[in-house]
Amino acid sequence: MTLSLALTFARRELRGGLRGFRVFLACLALGVAAIAAVGTVRAGIEAGLAEQGSALLGGDAQATLTYRYATPEELAFMQDVSTTLSETVDFRSMILVGEERALTQVRGVDDAYPLVGKVALDPPMPLADALAGNGTLPGGVMERVLSDRLGLEPGDTFRMGTQDFVFSAVLTSYPDNAAGGFSLGPRSIVLTKDLTNAGLLTEGTLFDTDYRMLLPPGTNLQALQDRAETQFRDTGMRWRDSREGAGGTARFVDRMGAFLILVGLSGLAVGGIGVSAAVRAYLGNKTATIAILKTLGATRGTIFATYAIQIGALTLLGVAIGLILGGGIPLALAPVIEAQLPIPADFGLYPAPLIEAAIYGILASAIFTLWPLARTENIRAATLFRDAFGGGTALPRWPYLAITVAMIALLLGLAIWFSGTVWLTLWTAGGIAGALLILVLAAALIRLVARLLRRAARGRPALRLALASIGARGGESTSVVLSLGLGLAVLAAIGQIDGNLRRAFTAELPDRAPSYFFVDIQPDQIDGYRQILADNPAVTKVETAPMLRGVITRINGEDAQKVAGGHWVVRGDRGITYADNLPDGSSLAGGEWWPKDYAGEPQISFAAEEAAEIGLELGDTLTVNVLGRDITGTITSFRQVNWDSAGLGFVLTFNSAALAGAPHSWISTVYAPEEAEARILRDVATAYPNVTAIRIRDAIDRVSVLIEGITAATRYGALATLVTGFLVLIGAAAAGERARTFEAAVLKTLGATRGLIVASFALRAALLGLAAGVVALTAGIIGGWAVQTYIMENDYRIIWSNALWIVGGGILVSLLAGLAFAIRPLQAAPAQVLRARE
């Protein structure tokens, strides 16, 4: 009976329309839309990656080997399980055109390439024709950014190593692009057989070989992977198939999407403030209705159910609007989004992200509305006739508090489940809760300070009026600081993190980093290479080290992946070196270095920080696969390695006798002023065409572009939070319009001019915006420091240029909202306003 009666009351009250709930609906819809849009885009990308896994990989399956070709046994296995096999070689090299030189990522291919998909060229032609050359020289293709940089036109000649090629066409697209990961140079493609005389693929040089396979229909991919990994577990072979064709790209998309959804939850938290305020205002306007219902015998349960049903219906409406926007906008903008993505996407209406967004929206609405709804139960009818929330207890009954806590826990649990990131979710939730607590305390402090400063503002009536309004109990201070503060705090934290990353890469790193990395220096070239640099007076420092790549397969005889828990050191191949003496710039953190000319059982010095993360101890044994051969050594020392200088650093260092006989090359770093870099490159490249130079400043520029893409996406998520905060601010300003009208009428009656009233309103808004900006900036600086220090483990410095934007933005937004709702109060006639309040 109670529920039926409540439904009747709720239906009749909702006939009056949505007036008073516009901010409620806007905040809820915007928060849900942001989460749904991010989830829809992520789902579309994941669907595209899944549908085109073979094209992204370049085949149904792929085996990758480091710095070597497949053995006869490995080739026989791959030929046995596949219908077609293609071998490609991937490495970095320098392209020379006259005096111009540029770094490129080379792919040497065979006649079977590509197994899946097509290579698109400009001018259009088959890849086989482009690589056939002109009858005298073999052909090559490269991406436009590289051909433009070198000034190449089809028919021109370029050189790689000691081999000349004819440039045939611009490479516009090719399969297996997304699976290639981050590269330091644009792509070039040539035939592997045409590199025979180039001097670029000798023993010990740095290259990967990829064996792509087309498999018989119906092949069990998991069974085949298990078979390959079991048979070649210790040879360093890395196996992938079309289920993970995009490799790390898919993992990056998933992690980035999860992070952006967590940022979207901060927008829902801001919107929740507006939702709660709208419900309070709505129930406050229903004082007479609630009083009459109680007088006529309505129970507390009936009243609670009546307004809970109304709020629930409006919540469903707001969530529905958000889902339509969040699911529809990516569909409408699909062509634009797909054009910007380097990977395929298949946009559509995917239920999972929409359901996730709906759950978040419903739970957030319930959390923020239960408190004001529950308080109506505890207010006596006599009190309701005077003030909706003036009486009764400040807190609702304990069951409602318990339900609120349970819903918050449920929201956190679902966020962890959906995102798959426990600590990131907990850190985000803790950051939001901490920021809200700081903002609430700051609002109370601001009111106190305003009351204290009001006395010192005598003789400045506009400022005195503004301070009195800010310090008033129940005024706008709390709503403005909360609504603006959290959105600005998220932006401030992102701005500080972004600024510190850019400073580390683009400002500080070049000052302490080398000018060049040189790789693929052959053992018989290292002495001449050192002499060239020694003859150049501009060179201030040269570091050299032998370089091999190896895969850690065993730790104390156990599978390394299981023992290390998937630590980055055991994922894929790692750079290793050998040395007689402790390398410069390193210091022992434990154990003892091997004696000079030691020739006993292999010994290993391991980076101390990484060893602690994995749980390694002195005396542990590691099995490292180098060029298909297992080498087992004992850890006899730990080293402190400085990774921040961008110089030479190795996780693994062996004694010289353990590796000196293995084919290898040398790498080197060269330090010199920027103006001397051109001569260094020219001298080394002329003497040793096979040696590849990586200019550090160019690498930093490419990393900076990647960082810009990541931070831009994060900023968009934070802007959604700020827009939600602006809507809450508008709602608070609109709710205070009536009080502002009465204030203006009283001031006019007492003789205040319109200019004085406008000045007081403007000062009030500006001071509150300034306070919100400063508080948000403080929270953002703390958040940025925590992320930089404890997650990224980098030095932290406040980026004041970003900080000033936050403070200025807070002042401007608050001022615009405050003045927008000051127009009607200024125009109102004092007599009409004062009579209406009688």
Automatic annotation (TrEMBL):
<keyword id="KW-1003">Cell membrane</keyword>
<feature type="domain" description="ABC3 transporter permease C-terminal">
    <location>
        <begin position="262"/>
        <end position="375"/>
    </location>
</feature>
<keyword id="KW-0472">Membrane</keyword>
<keyword id="KW-1133">Transmembrane helix</keyword>
<feature type="transmembrane region" description="Helical">
    <location>
        <begin position="716"/>
        <end position="736"/>
    </location>
</feature>
<feature type="transmembrane region" description="Helical">
    <location>
        <begin position="357"/>
        <end position="374"/>
    </location>
</feature>
<keyword id="KW-0812">Transmembrane</keyword>
<feature type="domain" description="ABC3 transporter permease C-terminal">
    <location>
        <begin position="719"/>
        <end position="826"/>
    </location>
</feature>
<feature type="transmembrane region" description="Helical">
    <location>
        <begin position="756"/>
        <end position="787"/>
    </location>
</feature>
<protein>
    <submittedName>
        <fullName>Putative ABC transport system permease protein</fullName>
    </submittedName>
</protein>
<dbReference type="GO" id="GO:0005886">
    <property type="term" value="C:plasma membrane"/>
</dbReference>
<feature type="transmembrane region" description="Helical">
    <location>
        <begin position="799"/>
        <end position="823"/>
    </location>
</feature>
<dbReference type="Pfam" id="PF02687">
    <property type="entry name" value="FtsX"/>
</dbReference>
<feature type="transmembrane region" description="Helical">
    <location>
        <begin position="424"/>
        <end position="450"/>
    </location>
</feature>
<dbReference type="InterPro" id="IPR038766">
    <property type="entry name" value="Membrane_comp_ABC_pdt"/>
</dbReference>
<feature type="transmembrane region" description="Helical">
    <location>
        <begin position="395"/>
        <end position="418"/>
    </location>
</feature>
<dbReference type="InterPro" id="IPR003838">
    <property type="entry name" value="ABC3_permease_C"/>
</dbReference>
<feature type="transmembrane region" description="Helical">
    <location>
        <begin position="259"/>
        <end position="283"/>
    </location>
</feature>
<feature type="transmembrane region" description="Helical">
    <location>
        <begin position="304"/>
        <end position="337"/>
    </location>
</feature>
